[in-house]
Amino acid sequence: MNVFRQECKMNFKTALLWILVLCTLGLIFMSFLPLVQKDMKTFLKLMDNFPPALKAVMGIVTDTFSTPLGYYSFAFTFVALCGAIQAMNLGVGIVSKETRDKTADFLLTKPISRTGILSAKISASIVLLAMTAVVYSVIMGFIIRSFSSGDLDIGKYLLVSVTLLFSQVIFYSIGLLVSVTAKKIKAVLPVSLAIVFFFYALSAFAVTSESDKLRFLTPFQYFKPVYIIQNGYYETAYLVTGIAIVIVSVLASYIWFCKKDVHSV
Amino acid sequence: MNIYRRELKAHRKSLLIWCIGMFFLIMAGMGKYSAGAAAGDNSMNILMKEMPQSLQNLFGVGIFDLTIAVEFFAILFMYILFMAAIHAAMLGAGIISKEERDKTAEFLLVKPVSRRQIMTAKLLTALTLLAVFFLATYASAYGILSYYSKGAAFASDLMKLMASFAAIQLLFLSVGAFFAGIFKNPKRSVAAATSVMMVMYLLAVIADIVEKLDFLKYLSFFKYYDAKDILKRGYSPVYPVISVIVITALIFCAYHFYQRRDMKI
Amino acid sequence: MQLCRIEGGNSRMPNTIEIHNLTKYYGRSRGIVDVSFDVEEGEIFGFIGPNGAGKSTTIRTLLALIYPTSGSASIFGMDCIKDAPKIAKRVGYLPSEVFYYDGMKVKDLLRYSASFYKKDCSKRMKELAGRLDLDLNRKIDDLSFGNKKKVGIVQGLLHSPDLIILDEPTLGLDPLMQQIFFDMIREENERGATVLMSSHILNEVQRICSRVAIIKDGNIIKLEKISTLQETSYKRFKIETHDKLPADTFQIDGVSDLKIEDNTCSFIYRGDINLIVARIAACRIVNLWADEPDLEEIFLHYYSKEV
Predict the structure, then answer these.
(1) Fold (topology level) of C233-303
(2) CB neighbour burial string for A35-61, b if at least 16 within 10 angstroms, e if fewer
(3) Given Cys at both, which of B163, C15, C35, C294 links C22, Cβ 3.0 to 4.6 Å?
(4) Can you give the pTM of this predicted structure?
(5) How far, in Å, CA of B189 to CA of B90, rounded?
(6) Does pLDDT of A185 surpass 50?
(7) Cβ of B78 under 8 Å from any chain A Cβ?
(8) A107 CA to chain C: closest CA distance, Å?
(9) Which fold has domain C15-229?
(10) Do residue C66 and residue A6 have CB atoms under 8 angstroms apart?
């Protein structure tokens, strides 16, 4: 479809830039691994004697932290943060740009229904996010393998890396809903940064609280790499919540977008 | 001046949101303090001291006594500075480039007011907004710290930290203004300012973790005002001097290029 | 089903556009109220009114950009809202202000526009751009306002639509381009396209449209053929006489706006021409001017607040 192709074209360069950013970030963190591993053995012996609550605060799981994959889970939180910004930017920007750049009169009077337009934009976004996740995961896979002297549990690694795409899709759908419902968004970056940091702050809150309930409030906590590596599968409750958020946001976006008045500039 | 007043009014809502956000960040952060270290439980500190230096820097612990509220706050301060930097960078770039972004350049720049005066009015607005943000942060921190410190002295330490907060604000404001002065495209200037800030943050983290790369600290404004240095390790007056030079140079360039370049209409 | 049918109209021509009691409120402020009119197939229909009267609101509702509070409208017999994409296949819309995507070249935008109509428009594109003297290889961002307008015109016409909706079409075009543009519209109309044109430039409406609707404060206040408007309107007379005329020479019914200055006398007359000619003939005239009414004056009469 032409709108799909056009959207892909228009957002491609930005997507490439983000892949670069994510890979660089991952690489930098992984490069510290040998350093950390050196001092790690003594440290871990001490940690074994300490209460589990403390370890939870530090976000360390002793058995796996010194392994490349375990350490990667720690690095992954930062990659996920960047990925969330990318996805949120895309979501918040892709519909609001028709209003911001005043191209709404052009696009919305063409022989294509509003659902058609929104579907094209969403598909293009998913393709770009998937591309980001795949390319990033492949590159990082090689990097981690080189750190683990060739020995890497591909299955577990893939499970963790795919969560990048999952959380990106969740953030994207939230951003999309914002984009569709807001009257006019003058600048995308402040809005998307604000929303992402809000969820990140919630995530910090959630980690320290005892109850698991807060984890539901922030997509950053839906896919804990630590858990995934240990158990080999996702926590169902959070996976379902994530899917629910995506479905509800996307549906709401469709309904809102089809009903809203598009005013002249 | 009329421009000054108008700009202030336009930024009211966003400033309010930032101040409230900062208050919650401090509250959430110090909430962690009460959960963990406040109990007078020194085990946390012992644990931290045993950690290898690289890990200490990674988690931002070790140098501070985590049972003292203001020292715990100093660890939280990294994130507070990060928020201040984002706010200042986006403000600096945004306030100068918004005339071109909102297509009001043709209106404003043909009025009997020079580009220099416009720049001055906008920078003054930015300074006012930063000052309000500074005070809000200071007040929140003071209030929350006095609650948690239970009589222990913290005022002078807090003052030193807040001085660095102001310095970071000014530094990143000038970075933002600089890019807006150079680039015609408003989206580009905001993106450039934010990227510089992110890169500097990353450099600061790396400089902390990898001792060999310590020289990186000169490339990152965040390392000029490292809480560890300010409160404990002794502070070199070289940094404020460099800051003043950098701020002056960037602002001068901002004026110069804004005067010379074409407006994007 | 047929409100506001004009006597003398060709009742066998189907209507391209039918609007029934279309109403739109923005919150509590009125956009349009009970707007009803039809546009016959093949005609060029003018749509005029003062600023804020509701022209854009009506057009935007026809194009399903905004949704009516009540009432309905149909184009090609299909509901404007429900069948919008289907209708859009055969409609060309030229908005008053054109904005396009960052960094696009003219030809990119036109190709993208053409891709929606599943027709090969490349020949048409070049032909239209050539006539309007539009460089296809330039970036749209770099074009002047008038040239951007030309992009809008080509974009609206390149798929040979059956209905062309114009909103302030000649705003920004130089006089030569305006001529060329109207020639293009006339050619499209001869080819069978229906045209709905909204404009503030009253003499262009007068020149090209066959019927006109005047909207004011959200209501249609007049719907008339241009010819009828001209006929039932006044004539402007100016007479220069040899001797000074007595003041009551032209004080008869139908004369208004009487101005006497030395030997010159001017007035507006509405009524039986023979009566006024008889009066004039009774004087010793040096010179006589009789003017066709300017539609602009007629329209302005409707625009003004007192109506």
Answers:
(1) Alpha-Beta Plaits (3.30.70)
(2) bbeebbeebeeebeeeeeeebeebebb
(3) C35
(4) 0.79
(5) 9
(6) yes
(7) no
(8) 9
(9) Rossmann fold (3.40.50)
(10) no
